[in-house]
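note to self: dont lose this again. the chain is below, predicted strucutre after it. 353 aa total, dont forget to put it in the shared folder this time
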Amino acid sequence: MPLIDCDVHPYAPDMDSVAAYMPRAWQERFDGYPLPRAGAGPDRYANPNAGLRKDATPPAGGIPGSDPQFVAQDLLDKHDVAAALLLPMQGAGMTAWTDADSAAAFASAINDYMIERWVQTDSRYKLSAIVPPHDAELAAREIRRLEDVRGVASVMLPLQGTLMGHRSFDPLYEAAQEAGMPIVIHPTGAEGSYQGCPTVAGGTQRTYPGWHTALPQVAQSNLVSLVFDGTFEKFPKLRVAMVEFGFSWLVPTLWRMDKEWQNFRFEVPWVKRPPSSYVLEHVRFATQPIDEPAPRTNLWELVDLMDASQALVFSSDYPHYDNDDPMTVLKHIPAPVRQQMYDNAAALFGDRL
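---
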């Protein structure tokens, strides 16, 4: 069965390569500025594996995941990947910045670099165009600039400290809905590390595994916000994909949301039906990092409780150190679920895939 991989990370080799796609004034502004998130960023939590797989290093050297031809051989050809959604994590480093205009200029340059150097080299690459979270009007402008560009499949929104249901995001959602482009969110590494970025509940984790375990809280909070703040009522055609937050937390969250809606419908009259129905219609969840309970069948029994497989899509997270290798992961996923994940991704991105 061919795959649609909803989480592949392309990397640029250096800032000069990205700055070449900026107007001259912005090139001068970024001259000498380090390229953020090149695989070993100065985050609060030092990844013990340096973040990237060493065996994904291109034959000529450089950052793992920076050679589109090698990634095509090492991932797409090897695993029969029909389409790979590119999420440019170096652009996500802008979440720690304070200047919206700088973030917008950098986002546009990253997008143009990825379109020319990746999307145009292999038709299986599909870009999730990154937009600045600082200013929804600037983000909407970038969406409209790229909405007719072949190979651009979705919008990557790196999160800051404002929950996704806040009305300040409405211009962004309006542009994405009009363009028929899903919104994709993904951890940036800045969660719990920088002021103004998403936090995790209860305080600051001391260790990397503690922080990594708590990351799904970010997705859970934003999912609750999208539903109870009425985003999907305002934008009925909007679709959202939550990538690299896992999914085993989804079913108990849906149970709790439905119960609270039944108890407090008077407070959210714009939520006109059970929250779980909005989520299963509008939101998709990528598999990586997949949980591995003993026995592993317990995971799929949990998913079956609410027929949540209709909300799942496959993701590998290549070339990150903890990526889910398709050969290893897929053999533990029931065949009907594998087919469902393919169909879900095909429907999510539609003709843009």
